[in-house]
Description:
Number of domains of chain A: 1
Number of helices of chain B: 32
Largest interface: A-B, 56 and 62 residues
Oligomer: heterodimer
Number of strands of chain A: 11
Distance between the termini of chain B: 64 Å
Shape of chain A: globular
Helix content of chain A: 25-40%
Strand order of the largest sheet of chain B: 19-21-17-22-20-23-24
Number of strands of chain B: 44
CATH superfamily of chain A: Class I glutamine amidotransferase (GATase) domain
Amino acid sequence: MSRRPEAAVLTAPGTNRDPDACLALELAGANPVVIPVASLLDVRSRLSDCDMIVIPGGFSYADALGAGRLFATELDHVLGDHLSVAAAERRPLIGICNGFQTLVRLGIWTREGYRLALGHNADGVFTCEWVNLVPDPMTRCIWTDGLEGEVSCPVAHGEGRIVCDDATLMSLSGTGRVALRYVRNPNGSRGDIAGLTDATGFILGLMPHPENHVVARQHPGVRRGIGGGLGLRIFENGVRHAGR
Amino acid sequence: MTAVHCLMVTVRGDDPRGRALLADAHAMGYPALQSATISDLIFFRGTLVSDVRDDLVSILVDPLLQSSTWSRSGGVTSDTSLMVESVLHAGVTDAVAEQLLRVARRKGWPAHGVATGRRIELRGEIPHSLRETLIRRLLVNPVIEHWVIDSLVEPVFAQGSAETVEVFGESFVSGDSFPPVIRAVQSVHVTYPVHLPVRTDSDLEALNRARGMALDPAELEAVRAYYAVHGGVAPDIELEMIAQTWSEHCAHKTFRARITSTTGEEIVPLLDQLRRATAQIDAPYVVSAFVGNAGILQFTPGTTFAVKCETHNHPSAVEPFGGANTGVGGVIRDVLGASHRPIACTDILCFGPADTADALLPDGVIHPRRVRSGVVAGIADYGNKIGLPTLAGAVLYDPGYVANPLVFAGCVGMANSPYVAERPLPGDRIVVLGGATGRDGIRGATFSSATMDATTGDVAGASVQIGDPITEKLLVDLLADGRHLYRSITDCGAGGLSSAIGEMAEGVGADVDLDGLPMKYPGLAPWEVWLSEAQERMVVATADPRPLSEACERLGIHCTDVGVFTGSGRLVVRSSGHPIVDIDTGFLHDGRPTRNMVARLPQPARIAAFSEERSDPSGRPGASSSSQPMNVTELEAILLELLAHPNIACKASVIRRYDHEIRGATLVRPLVGEPIGGHVIGHADGTVIAEPLAPNGLALGIGVNPWFGMTDPERMGQAVVDEAVRNVVACGGDPDQVALLDNFSWGDPRREETLGDLVATVAGACEAAVAFGAPFVSGKDSLNNEYLGKDGKRHAVPPTLVITAVAHVPEASRTITPDLKAVGNALLVVGMTPVALGGTHVAMVRDVSLSSVPPFDHSAPSRYRRLHAAIRDGHVVSCHDISEGGFAVALAEMAIAGNVGFNIHTAPPTFRADARDDQRDASEMEVLFGEGNGRFIIEVEQRHVGAVVASLSGEASVIGTVSADEIARFPVFGAERMAVPVAALRQAWAGRP
């Protein structure tokens, strides 16, 4: 058995799904290490030692100026383009929910020329329910690479609607940036987009929470004889690529 | 003077906030409004060069979603009929402003102050005479905001006046503290404290009224006697402390009172009755009951659970969002104060009907619609942000809650080390952890203990707290695994430091210095600091504060050593070197005279007697007094009306706003069943949490029924215990391993009838708890839930007892839900249906005349054990308890959730509980819609029916089957045989087919 990859789990005040992400990472074969941005001075060096990076869900800085805005400002201040560099070095990076919002605000996609944002859900309120996701066949994303069938997991957010114009939507689809789409769209996201990858394919940003479906009994349909694809598989993909 | 700049940010295109506001306005009687635009105003004081402005815009504005301007114009444009700009009062927590200041500091921007506000522009006709009402009822909350109409609002910089800017600019704690605070240098109030004369009854009575102390004459006399030896004068701060400590909220005077009935009977004090029940049951899994912040349970070796439920009624009535928000924050701190890691929240909400006419609202009362949307948003905000699933709950509507909405918030915590509560020892340091202190929530405990009136919202402005879940999350991270860091711990709730340190110092004594505490802004008087109910603070006692302060520094939590536990027995508080409090803790905690109270016990009618057969003018038959089949159209109409009743109808839109998935431990969710149009909408009876890899779990269930209580309080006490236990059994909880939380919300107990209702309810609840072997482990009473209208009338809440049941789930794999599972399965009813319609929902929608409230079912405990065994055997695939709306509604709910039909071929068995004047059988109304206790409907595969019937010893009877045709058929009822499509049931219940 080879060494378990180290997974840096970056947290800010208000991050709250870090334990859930850590459990998923452990079950997928990684060693999660939680790194609060409060200890920013050594974040950069600690990040360099990690094989993969996770920005988990929550309400960083209470969503005070908009979801993910302040976390992005902090990361930008301390890390600069370190996260993009990590992806270019083939170290997998996943931003989940608030982590995705943070990646969008950091400009991961804007820098690639895609004008997009995460707006308030179409019905205007936070929503928590289970969704099914299908990997886009065109995607270059290593996190969804080779996933069979759908992934079932919950969403729990108020600002998860991808907003972009038609040209951007076409372009995202055409370049394999769309990693995951909702089977039934919970928030009015353009193109039913649930998750996006970057040019390297090593970044995945997504609104749903695959870390909350890591054992079969967590699926709400189990008593009706209905299961669904484990979200754990997304983490297993990440861990597999982190090991390389 | 530095300039003030304002950035106005407006959402592009359709704004959900504007849409929601418009919907509320339409519902509240402003149908001519066409649109609403909400803009955020962000004020900066300082010199902002254009680079900084551009930077601010890049951080604050997403160009795809929002537009912005630095030059907002005043006045209304031609198409705007009303423009209102509002800002928060000074001292109200402004989290956005705090965060922006943090960024400004990091970026080196010369912004000295930040404040936020809001502009609302309405289009469409608003009658001029209604403008003020619209603004006060919908657009602003006068308690926390002020506003201007059709002009530009001036910001209030919470950071203080111009001369404090320098202090403010330099006194930030270094590093990355969150949120940023200042350690204010307090101005010394040389005249402080003020000594007030307390020599005569009239001195005291005047003080009592002027300072809102809510003490009664015997208590005032005790105060007079204590200060007689001090020269007959009392420092005002000590009087405030006494009022807090002796408040109903903190001292539970009524539950400890000596009560005599109007017939001369001595009644065991209510708290003693609850304790005796627990002692009599002597359950081995109870580690700690009625001690400290929460009840402690241990079902399996190595794991303990802390459970607690609190009310936050008065604050939620005045400021629904903030009140409910801090209610959740407070109960989470209770669990932290019991040294457990919070893992789940619960909420039970009682509102006035959403369609209450504006004209019926007492003066100063917020419309129930707005109370509801504020409370739900407040609960969702705190739970979602701190990262806890909000699970079990209930939403009730009754006109009795219009002026006094009730908000019950619960929390469950888990710990892996043995729980040991300790008292502070002399020499221990007193350390305050968490948020900074401001003018929030001063005098909350006395406020909570007094009757509200039309001016309460204005004068209680200082009682409103605004929560900060992110700071509390940091406290959770520090304390949940930090038992080694302290000896003793308590949370800062009502009464603030005065109450927290005061309680810890009981019998030990303490010497406290307020000067080092972090302040939100300068200028607080020492008494404000001492009494402030600023949220997100804990107080600990520790022999060595160094490891604690190091851990706090790592997490960015404020940690202030404010003094020492002395051993002197006296509580001394200093400010700027001067002692401002010096009081005997013995007097403070034990000096309050026991109350003597009189109760007039209720005499509810207990006859299952309908008056003779009646018909209403429309020709519809009323309650039948015989077993003649009723008109089927009428039965179906009743069923659909009950499904649409606000108490019974679908609550999915509320439940989905709470995160119930976080932690990945929610096994039986509040929403269950087949997705309909993509949404799961069926309601679970109870919920189950189990750590993702753990073999066992914990079930949570709620019992509440004020409508039984309005008729027969004793039977309500019994029924709600039964309902809570029934709910945990229905999802897989073990009835032999259940514990209960009791929360009483009542009117003024100094009225004999009100106290009588309370006495009867306690007796009923204790009797049922003993019968089930389910001990009470923690509780809270919230009395004086009354509102004195300008009309001189008192508006009291209905007697409301909420029971939360917490049960061990031995096998996480053997949990079940109520949604019907498979066509062909048998349906069985478990338990017998009593002939009793008192307090039922059918009695609200039809005239059913006099009837008793359903009685306690003494055979329920053994029945629940047998049912649990059948569930453990895996023989039960669905289970639903029968409660609001009765048998027919329960079946309909199972069918809606499972999206299949059923066929009922046999009527459920009935019995006569109470004496009656005729010998007739139960009517169809009673059978279909009665709300008798102790009953379930279960779904069983045909091959297991024999085994289940046998194991339930004749208490289960087969009544029908699950059918494929999506029609609910009740062929044994109604002259022409009832049959309703499931889509029609769903339309009534959820507003969609």
